[in-house]
Description:
Blueprint: H1 2-21, E1 26-27, E2 32-40, E3 48-56, E4 62-68, E5 72-83, E6 86-91, E7 96-98, E8 103-106, E9 111-118, E10 127-134, E11 140-147
Parallel strand pairs: 2-11
Antiparallel strand pairs: 1-2, 2-3, 3-8, 3-9, 4-7, 4-10, 5-6, 5-9, 10-11
Amino acid sequence: MMKTRIVRWAGVALVAALIVSGCVPLSSETGITVQNPWSRQALDGNNGAAFMTIKNNSAQDDRLVSATSSIAETVEIHETIEENGVMRMVHQPDGFPLPAGATLELKPGGKHIMLIGLKQMLKPGETYSLTLNFEKAAPFTLEVPVKEP
């Protein structure tokens, strides 16, 4: 009986750890899943960025068209590109396509969500709300954890 309790609590602890770490996908009712959302530490007044993996599990093509958050003056969808050996961030006002069954990875040095004019610090261990807006799927709000640099 004691062994069963230990195994049961170990399973509960593992699931809780996976949820906190972002390894368990967050799912919308429309077939969109988000995995491993995170941001780096940033000071208020500065800019920050959000990163994650978004998967379209539905049978129809979609598009990530925008994002919103109350912690920033402006939220934009960006991509870091290289031109003539120089890296620069480019605003993508049309967002990013998300074909049926495809995965969109938002990561440092690539596609990402830019938080411009932060209204508060992004401190490690804290979270903030971010809403992803799609062309077809319903808006999807998630909590983004801030991680150590």
